[in-house]
Design goal:
Elements: H1 2-15, E1 18-22, H2 28-38, E2 41-44, H3 51-57, E3 60-64, H4 70-86, E4 90-93, H5 101-110, E5 116-119, H6 121-127, E6 134-135, E7 138-139, H7 147-154, E8 159-162, E9 167-170, E10 175-178, H8 191-204, H9 209-230, H10 234-246, H11 250-260
Parallel strand pairs: 1-2, 1-3, 3-4, 4-5, 5-8
Antiparallel strand pairs: 6-7, 8-9, 9-10
Length: 261
């Protein structure tokens, strides 16, 4: 798997895909810097009037409903519909789905247009029509309890990533559980949002969405595990995590994979 990740990273740095991000105010900076470190070109937009033009230019569209309101949903719905009409991949982060009727309804409106979804266990459970446990944007459900829900969501030709202490990826046919990451990750605002952004960048360079999501999720977790060994706490973790996205230690990553095999 590591060789496949290396190949995609090389392609990503060569192609520098444009990722149109319709996202929240809280984590925008972290997402943009992580995409830049990865080799992608992030573009954030506030105006509905330019959405069709920017969607046309982009290689992938990422929608994150973290700071949700009617103006945002109007813009997101337009982007989703237009991306679908011209065949651009749409990646959805249903932040807080299940926490309120508004968030769940917004995520469900966008879901039909998405080729890939990344959420925590509670968010994925809510997208399947069931009720999960949630503390706002945090899950109270273990990853393994959302696997059936992920399979249901994936039935309509979608790739679903459940993130948590372990990450689960499925497209309804293929599936994989990944054990990489760091205990600092839940202490950093925007780690999940940034993970979805990284998945978007990999999908922009990869025709097989499951494989792209698998590689992106593994790379994200491996960078986090390396950063954990280098950091003194959550604040320094965030800094060295971005450094690892930019300049990964492939030898150390290989050793981590061997230890868990």
């Amino acid at each position: 798997m590591l060789e496949q990740i290396q190949s995609t990273i090389s392609l990503l740095k060569k192609q520098k895909p444009l990722i149109l991000c319709l996202t929240n105010y809280v984590t925008m900076d972290f997402m943009a810097n992580s995409l830049l470190a990865l080799g992608a070109a992030p573009l954030m937009s506030e105006s509905r009037d330019e959405i069709e033009e920017l969607t046309q230019l982009s290689q992938a569209v990422y929608i994150n409903i973290g700071t949700l309101n009617d103006v945002f949903m109007d813009k997101a719905q337009l982007a989703a519909q237009f991306a679908h009409s011209i065949g651009k991949p749409l990646i959805l982060d249903p932040v807080g789905a299940g926490a309120s009727k508004l968030r769940t309804a917004a995520a469900m409106k966008l879901l039909p247009y998405a080729q890939a979804i990344r959420g925590n266990a509670s968010e994925i459970i809510s997208l399947s029509g069931a009720n999960g446990g949630t503390k706002g944007v945090e899950s109270t459900d273990p990853v393994m309890t959302a696997i059936k829900s992920a399979a249901l969501v994936a039935q309509s030709q979608k790739t679903v990533v459940i993130s948590g202490p372990e990450d689960f990826i499925t497209n309804g046919v293929e599936q994989k559980l990944l054990p990489f990451g760091s205990s600092y990750m839940p202490l950093i605002t925007g780690m999940g949002c940034t993970m979805t952004a990284v998945i978007s960048a990999f999908i922009a360079c990869h025709s097989h969405h499951f494989q792209a999501a698998l590689e992106a999720t593994a790379y994200f977790g491996l960078c986090g595990q390396l950063a954990h060994e280098q950091a003194k706490g959550p604040a320094s973790f965030k800094q060295v995590f971005v450094d690892n996205l930019y300049n990964p230690d492939w030898t150390s990553m290989s050793q981590i994979i061997e230890r868990v095999s």
